[in-house]
Design a protein that fits this description.
- This is Dehydrogenase.
- Pfam families: GFO_IDH_MocA (PF01408), GFO_IDH_MocA_C3 (PF22725).
- This protein is an alpha/beta fold and 329 residues long.
- The chain folds into two domains: 110 residues, NAD(P)-binding Rossmann-like Domain (Rossmann fold); 179 residues, 2-Layer Sandwich (Dihydrodipicolinate Reductase, domain 2), CATH 3.30.360.
- Helix content is 34%, strand content 24%.
- The strands form three sheets. Strands 13-12-11-10-6-9-8-7-14 form a nine-stranded mixed sheet, with helices on one face. Strands 3-4-5 form a three-stranded parallel sheet, with helices on both faces. Strands 1-2 form a two-stranded parallel ribbon.
- Helix 1 crosses helix 8, helix 5 runs antiparallel to helix 9 and helix 6 packs across helix 7.
- The chain is globular.
- The two termini are 28 Å apart.
């Protein structure tokens, strides 16, 4: 992932990479060399990096288990921090990082780049317009079979913790509501190449009676969905489907009933508005850097993103205990 961050960083005016750290010195040096950073500090610990490079901000691309130490060290050193997801390895750690960022008066923002895609922005604009009425349910399918190797294949709760948070965060954004409870089931198909938790199904209860139904697997070969999942959103007036790529369609009931069913009419999907924040990964990095220079706080700041993480850990607790779990931060 660090390559994507470096690619984004080199397009932003006035941003200089002053140091690169990895527990493997040669990896850090190789990445710095790849981007022509001959003067950058090469370090093997966060403490060494902060002391020698004295950065204003930190890009955190570490594995989840190392995140709390890296982020808390950077905040204590006066850095703004942009983190990969998930924002912490536990909900308690996430709460602690929110408190530390507030105390340090620094930004801790989380990469939830799906919000910065054009399709979710257009869908949210349609829902907010009331075109399909009040949202009553959201249904989402995610089925792919990637062979990552490395830490993901050794993680517990890999789908929920490493991938589903993107979908959960998008559901919060699209629904414009917050989750209140969840029932979840994890399982390991017989063909799985993951240690644990490659497949899951979850039912979330949002406010206002909205249900979010998630089905996913990371060891599903053939007929794969988009990385953004396949969506169906049902409202009181009609429905919307998005294939996770470029196909967004919506229909509403016209009020006329023919036989068993209401007549329906297609609804035009609104275009992007100039105020919509897009650009995917790069767009979020740009937003973060702009915020450190006095711009608006990104919507994925830790104090908000913890709500998406609470969905993840609520689902994990439910899958572990076999019971419905209340979601709170």
């Amino acid at each position: 992932m660090s390559r994507a961050w470096f690619e984004a960083a080199k397009t932003i005016d006035g941003l200089e990479i002053v140091g690169v750290a990895d527990i493997d010195h040669d990896r850090a040096a190789a990445r710095a060399a790849e981007f022509g950073l001959e003067q950058a500090v090469i370090a093997t610990s966060i403490e060494d990096l902060l002391a020698r490079a004295e950065p204003d901000m930190l890009f955190d691309v570490v594995v989840p288990g190392a995140r709390h130490h890296v982020v808390s060290s950077a905040l204590a050193a006066g850095c703004h921090v942009l983190s990969e997801k998930p924002m912490a390895d536990s909900l308690d750690q996430a709460r602690d990082l929110v408190a530390r960022a507030r105390a340090a008066d620094r930004l801790h923002v989380v990469i939830q780049n799906r919000r910065y895609l054009a399709a979710p922005r257009r869908i949210r604009r349609l829902i907010a317009s009331g075109a399909i009425g009040d949202v009553t349910s959201i249904h989402c399918d995610f089925f792919l079979g990637p062979h990552f190797g490395g830490f993901r294949e050794e993680m517990d709760h890999v789908l929920l913790l490493d991938m589903a948070i993107h979908t959960f965060d998008a559901a919060r954004f699209l629904a414009g509501a917050e989750p209140e409870g969840v029932y979840c089931r994890e399982w390991e198909p017989k063909n799985s190449w993951y240690k644990q938790g490659s497949s899951a199904a979850a039912i979330f209860e949002f406010g206002e009676g909205v249900i979010f139904n998630y089905r996913g697997s990371w060891c599903a070969n053939g007929l794969g969905t988009s990385w953004e999942s396949a969506w169906r959103i049902t409202g009181t007036k009609g429905s919307l489907v998005w294939d996770g790529h470029d196909d967004i369609r919506a229909e509403i009931a016209t009020g006329d009933i023919k036989g068993l069913f209401s007549e329906v009419a297609a609804v035009e999907i609104p275009p992007l508005d100039p105020s919509d924040r897009t650009g995917g990964h790069l767009g979020l990095v740009q937003d973060f850097v702009a915020a450190t220079r006095g711009g608006p706080v990104p919507e994925t700041v830790g104090s908000q993103n913890i709500r998406s993480l609470a969905m993840v850990f609520g689902a994990i607790e439910s899958a572990t205990t076999g019971r419905r779990v209340e979601i709170s931060i």
